[in-house]
Amino acid sequence: MGTVRKLHKSNKDNEVYYYYLKNGEKRWMYRHKYYDVLGKRKEKKESSFKTEKEALKALLEVKASLLNDQSKQVEYNQMTVSQWLDIWYETYNSGWEVTSRLQRKNAIKHQMKPLLGKFKLSKLDRTTYVREYINKLSKKYKPSTVALFHRLFKIAINAAVEDEIIPRNRFNKISIEQEEELDNFLTSDELNILLDVTKKHENITNYTFILLLAYTGLRKGEALGLKWKNINLKEKTVTVERTRDRYGDRPPKTKNSYRTFPIDDIVVNQLQVYQKWCIETKFAYGMKLDKKKDYVFISYQGGTPMGANTSKYLFERIYKQLEKDNIHIKRITPHGLRHTHATILINMGIPPKTIADRLGNTVEMIYNVYSHSFKELEDKAVVAFSESLASGAKIGAN
């Protein structure tokens, strides 16, 4: 309240008071004494209410929370989002992966705090969150990026719920439309064109890398993390047990990401040719290929592991070459090859469980991410059924 003001007790509750501002306006407050879980005596107070009813309601909410053993929620109900984000990061960041730590630190600094930091953590509601965070992010970023920042903030809020600072996460049911992801895949014909241009103009490592992504649906990091011991050319299988990026090796994204799946003869034959090239290349640099320890994808310059950013520049070169050759296909990202693989399998009628196992996802996630493809498949089924009956009727008439 700043300066000391004379308090007058309310007639309705002896912990509710009113006072007067310098300009003569009347304001209300409450002061509630209680014992925390450790038996320590504390006082909770809040002022600046415009009516007695508002102050009394707030006091009753505090008392109810304490009766429900929610003393933390009472103690921290004036904490701002910014203050909680600092506590959350400092407390838990040591247990996060390097990439997660950097991603969350940047999101806190550049998105969460600037847009939501001033709000009280306990008072931030869905409407304010959507208006001040989601809508403002949507004006600046594409939907998939907005969805990422939304997911990161929910993780921070879930931690506050687990610490019993707030009772629930109000933002869990808010979803972000990601329509642009629907275009991040190629048709079979477009994929063949992409592979032909890559094979013609890129080195064998880059071509093999693109081919493997397209024919398996592997995540980029999973492909970079493959070692020759994970490739069984005889049994025609690939096993995923790690992912690799510019920060090094780490476990796969989820438990489902650990998997072994079959590959076809096209991939097997290319990997055989590529393995021979790897042996010759490493030998040229005075090294021997160690099938137990060596990564599958190596650079033709020195025989060292393929760089994590190689695919980004690779795609830029491929699309420049396509433009030069006056060939026009949809522009996708490296991750789009994973979407391409899944979409083609769905259109072929492959069961969602089989696709999920192959991609290292859950069936639910396959339905969510590729709902547009399943809708198209359902439409095809309706037409196919009608055409089948029509054909049968013609045969019967003859």
Quick take:
By secondary structure, this protein is of the alpha+beta class. The protein has helices at residues 52-67, 71-75, 81-92, 98-116, 126-138, 143-162, 188-201, 204-216, 220-224, 265-284, 310-324, 336-347, 352-359, 363-369, 371-397, and strands at 8-9, 16-20, 26-35, 41-49, 231-232, 237-240, 243-245, 248-250, 259-262. The radius of gyration is 30 Å and the shape is elongated.
- The total of beta strands comes to 9
Main sheet summary: 4 strands, antiparallel
Low-confidence stretches: none
- Overall shape: it is elongated
Structural class: alpha+beta
Strand content: 5-15%
Order of helices and strands: EEEEHHHHHHHHHEEEEEHHHHHH
Percent of residues in helices comes to 40-55%
Total of DSSP H or I helical runs spanning 4+ residues: 15
The neighbouring-strand order within the major sheet is 1-2-3-4
CA-based gyration radius: 30 Å
Distance between the termini: 94 Å
- Quick check: average pLDDT? 87
Give an overview of the whole structure:
This protein is of the alpha+beta class. It contains 15 helices and nine strands. Strands 1-2-3-4 form a four-stranded antiparallel β-sheet, with helices on one face. Strands 5-6-9 form a three-stranded antiparallel β-sheet, with no helix packed on it. A two-stranded antiparallel sheet has the order 7-8. A hairpin with a 5-residue loop joins strand 3 (about 25-35) and strand 4. Helix 3 (about 80-90) packs antiparallel against helix 4, helix 8 (about 205-215) runs antiparallel to helix 10 (about 265-285) and helix 8 crosses helix 12 (about 335-345). The radius of gyration is 30 Å and the shape is elongated. The chain starts with 7 loop residues before the first strand and ends with a helix.
